[in-house]
Amino acid sequence: MGRPNRAVQAAITQRRTDAVDLRVAGVGWPAIGRKLAADPSINSDGRAYPQGYGIDRYRQGLTPPSDKRLIELACRDVTKALKGRAAELSRSTDELRQLMMERLERLFFPMYQLAMRSGDYWATDRAVRIIERECRLLGLDQPVRAELSGPGGTPVQVESASMDELERLIGLAGGLPGPPRQGACAQTSSAVRCQVAERGGPCCNAGQPTR
Asked: What's the confidence (pLDDT) of residue 2?
């Protein structure tokens, strides 16, 4: 099979565009396959879609493709169309990046010459900022690493807490519903209160003077 001419290629491109549009609109694969089928007998619109699915079989008078085959063809169309759009977007992005680099270069050289000739601090600052922008645009900056450490640069200490300690912290935060465990006391800003004692239970602070 030879390479399709411009008219055929344009029809195939339009078919792929229609497939993507239908899929974006939420149309299912079987419905897309039938809507873009070449054979009017299975085409959902009852017409011969130009360069539709199964065009060769339709021209030869053979049976139209099965639903499974129509789904495969529709999926292939959408995949190729999206890949083509991604490649086009990538080319456009590269062209725009190159255009921005040329603009930055035109801004850089006057500032650079002024800084080198007269030592102008403002021109030096502008030149450095343009260089920084170019580095970000080209992805030349190294990623910044952040590292957490304890006092004096020592490793951060991670301690495990017991159930009693966790319940004490919960009590300080306002408490949770339900009876507390024996010995679980909550400390307020004004005094040491035993929540267990308030409910008639034994207190771990019994006999200890309150401050």
From this structure: 56
Amino acid, res. 51: Q
19, 44 Cβ separation under 8 angstroms: no
pTM tops 0.70:
no
When mean pLDDT is compared across 15-19, 86-90, 202-206, the lowest value belongs to 202-206
Q: Cα(35)–Cα(168) distance, rounded to whole angstroms? A: 68
Report the C-alpha gap between 47 and 39 in whole angstroms.
7
DSSP-assigned states of every residue in the chain:
-PPP-HHHHHHHHHHHHHHHHHHHTT--HHHHHHHTBS-TTT-TTSS--TT-BTHHHHHTTPPPPPHHHHHHHHHHHHHHHHHHHHHHHHHHHHHHHHHHHHHHHHHHHHHHHHHHHH--HHHHHHHHHHHHHHHHHHT-SPPPP-----GGGPPPP-----HHHHHHHHHHTT--SSPPPTT--EE-SS-EE-HHHHTTS--TTTTPPP-
